[in-house]
Amino acid sequence: MKRLGRLDEAAADGPEGPAAAAAEDARRAFDDALADDLNTPEALAAVHGLVSRANALLADGALSRAGAARVANWVVARTAPAHA
Question: How much is the pTM?
Answer without folding.
Answer: 0.86
